[in-house]
Amino acid sequence: MIELNNMQFSWKETLILDIEHLMIKANEKVFIQGESGSGKSTLLNLLAGVITPQKGEVIINNTHLNTMKSSQRDSFRANHIGFIFQQFNLIPYLNLIENIILPCKFSLSRKEKALEHSKSLEEEAIRLLANLGINASSVLKRSVNELSIGQQQRVAIARALIGSPDMIIADEPTSALDSAHKASFVKMLFDECEKENITLVFVSHDESLKSHFGRCIELSSINSVKVEEVE
Amino acid sequence: MSMFTLALKSIQSRKATFLLTFISIAISVMLLLGVQIIKKEANSGFLQPVSGTDLIIGPKSSQIELLLYSVFHIGTPNTLMEYKSYERIQASKNVKWAIPISLGDSHKGYKVVSTNENFFKHYSFANDKKIEFTEGKAFEDMFHVVLGYEVAKKLNYKLGDNIVLSHGDAEVSFVHHDELPFKVSGILKPTHTPIDKTLIVTLHAMEAIHDDSPNHFMHRPIKKKIEHHDESHEEEHEEHEEHHGEEHHEHNEDEHGKHSEKTYKENVSHKVAKKLKKLPLKISAVYVGVESKNAIFGIQRKINNNTNEPLSAIIPALAVQDLWDFFEFVQITLNIISGLVVFIGLLGMLSLILMGVQNRRKEMAILRSIGATPFDIGKLVVGEAAIVCAVSIGLGVVFLYVALFVLSQPLYDTYGFYLQIQPLSLRELAILALIECSAILISFIPAYRIYKQSLIDGMNTHI
């Protein structure tokens, strides 16, 4: 599913990532742990094809991202990857439903997959929200800024899930949540990925979440560039 | 959801922020279009009263001068022309009709035009519209007067009312032709030309009220006689005491014109004047219609080279054009100013969008993560500018029409300038399109910046 080979990435002539090999299989739930500044965000940008390494290969779903044009990588990302960010995941001027169905506007394949589940994209969004424990009718009319952070993050899961991408990348999605919500958030994410056979890459510095995952990768153990050098 | 829909929603959520931009561009659009429309309307306003007249003939003078006094009643003619010349013109070849016009008197600030029945028969305006009556009819009696629509409305006159003309064209005249009042025989429909503001009388009556020949005056007592040296009327004029014959006039120092009784009654002077029924020796100008348009220049040449009397013949449409060219620099200046105002409005929009670029990096990262290309993000910004400008233009057009509706009546009342409210012309729509295109072009600046920014930021959300 995800394969990195002899990959090096530098930013302004400073080597940030140097990963000899990383392999993540389809449907795997992987926890990547690293302190801030360890190059986590850079790794995610590389996996998503927003940036390309100067050296080596990034292979996702047997597709070599490093040889694609940037617009091809953008549409590849739209079709195959869902994202969950740390906070402020939602576009402030779109409502709840519009935020969730946004990926379908950039990816025809995800739109088609979403419509396999429900008659309309709106219905699919409501269905996903219901699975995540949000009764859509009670929050539908509200601006996304009025939602609690916990609710916002669950809306973000729904957006990442819609149209069943092959992979979800979650970048510190729980750091704004309190510990009670953290566990339930991770569990929900897990369950949904399981149902849809989605590979999950979960990046965090929070070791307490490690136990939920089958596989845990310490970024510093695969990256030969040391954290001190990055700073 | 295309980037355009996103842009629409983004602007919708920032309505308050963009409010001033909307208003400033809207006002500038209103100004720019307003200048165009006023120019166009003024042009057609000047052309309408002369649209049915092929030539205007008057005493030797400049064409603008002749046009202004003979049609728009602005200024006074320096000299007059022979009535005989009118008769000659009317009889000449290729002339279909000729209308004599004599000016000089007024009634409560409204101009009096004396003419003959040809005026009602042949005069046309605004593309072949003929003079029509709301009430009554053209004069059948020598002392009948036909009122322009506005004169009747403003002064509240009805058919059969008594009207005393004043000598000269000042708003407040001290010389009244009150021995020979007129009877209102007809009221015209609005024409939106200077005719609405005129009183139309017969040439015979005009001659009678200015006549001071012994024949005329031997029939009535004269107490006082004042001589005038008015170039426009070489005859002498009198101011008569308010009492003579069986007529009784109530005199009111403050309100001139209310000297006589409300209802017209024929008096001795009228009878005398009718018996004499003299035609004037001199008139102010002649409107001419030709048999065929090809004859216009020939007649014009003939008149201008006339040896009987020095005369000028002008083609009114060309004279209006000349007059208009004279004002062109004013119009150009206004165009430049309103163009600059549009530009300033667009700069305001630009700075607002540029300010947004920094604050929106997070939003851009989310869009990138979903699969938006940096180019899409550039398009978002261009779309926003396009929407802001389009909304402002729409608002500006609304402002414009509101202003036109509000201003049209006062403009007409004050300047007699009739503002016709019409849909936007192709030219004006092209101006609007040009403004919209400028807005889009100008938005390439922030679009390029945000494009560069999102290339660098990627999905980096820890900003």
Protein described:
The complex is a heterodimer of chains A (231) and B (463). Chain A has 10 helices and 9 strands. Chain A has helices spanning 40-47, 70-80, 96-106, 108-117, 121-131, 136-139, 149-161, 179-196, 219-222, 227-230; strands at 2-11, 14-24, 29-33, 55-60, 63-64, 81-84, 167-171, 199-204, 215-218. In chain A, the strands form 2 sheets. A 5-stranded parallel β-sheet of chain A has the order 6-7-8-3-9, sandwiched between helices. In chain A, strands 2-1-4-5 form a 4-stranded antiparallel β-sheet, covered by helices on one side. In chain A, β4 and β5 form a beta hairpin. Chain A starts with a strand and ends with a helix. By secondary structure, chain B is of the alpha+beta class. In chain B, 50% of the residues lie in helices and 13% in strands. In chain B, strands 4, 5, 8, 9, 10, 11 and 12 form a 7-stranded mixed β-sheet that branches. A 4-stranded antiparallel β-sheet of chain B has the order 3-14-1-15, with helices on both faces. In chain B, α2 packs antiparallel against α12 and α12 (328-359) packs antiparallel against α14 (374-415). The chains are: A alpha/beta (231), B alpha+beta (463). Chain A binds chain B through residues 41, 44-45, 48, 50-51, 70-71, 74-75, 77-79, 83, 85-94, 98, 101-103, 105-107, 159, 171, and chain B through 1-2, 6, 9-10, 12-14, 362-363, 365-375, 458-462.
